[in-house]
Amino acid sequence: MRKSHPIRRVVLATAATVSGVVLLLSLKPSSDPASASAAGAAPSAAAAGQESPQGGTGAAGTTTVDGNATQTQYGVVQVRLTVAGGKITQAQAIQAPKGGTSDQKTALSVPQLNKETVAAQSADIDSVSGATYTSTGYKQSLQSALDKVKAAGASSSAGSSAGSSSSSGSAQAQAKTLTGQVAQTQYGPVQVRITVSGGKITKAEAVQAPKGGTSDQKTALSVPKLNQEAVAAQSANIDSVSGATYTSTGYKQSLQSALDQAGG
Question: With left for phi above 0 and alpha for psi between -120 and 50, is residue 86 left, alpha or beta?
Answer without folding.
Answer: left
